[in-house]
């Protein structure tokens, strides 16, 4: 890996990590406070609306943001064209959602959703106001500015939400929190990128980006729909508080899943795009990413599964105990998601967005099959089907990597299997040990120390190269 590329990649990953984990940490703290004040039904009311926000932001983007990042000779006309296209799309979508509010309300049998949704959907109008600035900063690998904007926005909007929750605003707390978050980003980005749109619109820009962007649009649209699909199903066929329980379980699962995916997607794609025509180099970086990411995510996910009950009770009290089994299943389902995300990014960086779209379609098809097969047996069995679908989708993605990078199956398995076995055995031992704890918090502390010590000992013995890397990182941290 060249020095400049390596430096850019490390810098991108470092600030992308600060951005994502900073947001996750603040949201975790704010979420704990809000969950102790608000009720499961409050989260349920808003949870069923997030699918509309998610799909709308994807349609507004249209896949053109990554198209602009990948394009080497981006011009002002390109930026202006996509900006006004995004703005027009957002206005049309808001009008559709505004007049569809009564239908949404009837679908979920919740009359109050009409008022909540029409206000919440204003976020759709705010999103395009900062999308192009964010895209330009991503293209420049300026993750420092992005991190500052995001962390400040989530912190201020979170503080506002806590104040509103204490004052008894209920569901409106979560509505205003979302609007404040997007609004603050729209205000803050111009301070870090002094770009003002000028009215110009060229069809040639859309035509040039269309071939690459359309498969990405299909892929991200599928992701947006399926990320919220279980909220819709549970909200439609189960009591609204069940959506609240699922919301909390999904939130803690996303602590590792969404954070890792965001870092990999935003921090890795621009770098890999620069070397997409050098297959041997790309393969080396790919294997390094896979082994490094699995060394971190496998033990983290497995520990969260083992310690799910004391985590939930300690953080958000026993009123959320029904979330525990849902959290464990979601964590298991997303065990290989970071690796699947790396595979998708490698394919996209090589211009094989059509192949990555096919993989997403296959994955979503498997999820639909699992839902149809397991829905009648209850939420837990339905999520067990989700686990099976995700595992099978990752195995299929390995075939695309084999073809694209000539990376044999046995090597792909070898890159993961030792870390997975070490993490699993450590998790089992941590689970079965009896702990002399009277409270959930003390039990959680015992389990955390036990898991950490056993895992580091196993890495020291069975993965000496990784242990050397860990020591080097710790040495740099202590030196600084």
Automatic annotation (TrEMBL):
Topology of the protein relative to the lipid bilayer: Multi-pass membrane protein
UniProt-annotated location(s): Cell membrane
One GO cellular component term noted in the UniProt record for this chain: plasma membrane
Organism lineage: unclassified sequences, metagenomes, ecological metagenomes
Protein name: Teichuronic acid biosynthesis protein TuaB
Record-stated family: Belongs to the polysaccharide synthase family.
Any Pfam family: Polysacc_synt_3
Family matches, as CDD domains: MATE_tuaB_like
Keywords attached to this entry: Cell membrane, Membrane, Transmembrane, Transmembrane helix
Record InterPro entries: Poly_Biosynth_Transport
Naturally occurring in which organism (per UniProt): bioreactor metagenome
